[in-house]
Amino acid sequence: MITVALFDLDGVLTETAVLHRKAWKKAFDAFLAERAGGADAPGFVEFTEQDYLDHVDGRPREDGVRAFLASRGITDVDAKTVTAIGEKKNDMFLESLAEDGGQAYPGSVRYLEAARDAGLRIAVVTSSKNGGPVLEAADLSKFVEVRVDGIDIAERGLNGKPAPDSYLLGAELMGVPPAQAAVFEDAISGVQAGAAGEFGYVVGVDRVGGNQAEAMRAAGADVVVNDLDELLPA
Question: Which CATH architecture has domain 17-100?
């Protein structure tokens, strides 16, 4: 029996995944342009939305940097450069968050209200180190009993998604085995984490379309929806 819901944050509960993606694009394009000798240089190939989905989405910050650079065959960067790219991205994200705010998806709020009213206990598990500020900006903290975020992942030395470590910690802190918890994810890496952790149910949330739903099912999602309120009774 499912008694606990473990929600990813950006892209599942809040619209901030768009802010993350834009910030990553600015940070990576700046790095790639400098490396190529300019944005007009023949060797410059911009960072795309598919790059974000394939290599960055859902992963801890520096894991995402390394995964994307490796996908471009860039293996000669040191740890300082990886950290600098991630920090530049985070500065841009925080600027956007301050300007635009962290809006919650209305359908997600409806689902959270229904889940709470039904007695389902709620936790958030996010790779972002900005989990607290985003929850506050979106006025969602009132729903959340436990939060596991990128700070916890770093401090505890956990493996990031697609490893199940962060979700397993969320279940542990909620006092339930994985089989009694459902995972809600918009990232392929997060869906893979839910499947790897043998959670009771894995819900994929497809906000991008295209082949994403099919990829989520292949990664282990039990069901894929476009919005969480699709899970509510008609």
Answer: Orthogonal Bundle (1.10)
The one-letter code for the residue type at 190 is: G
Side chain identity at 160, as an amino acid letter? G
Model confidence pLDDT, tens digit, residues 171-181: 999 999 999 99
What is the band of 70 on the pLDDT scale with cuts at 50, 70, 90?
very high
Domain 4-15+102-231 has CATH 3.40.50.920: no
Active site residues: 8, 10
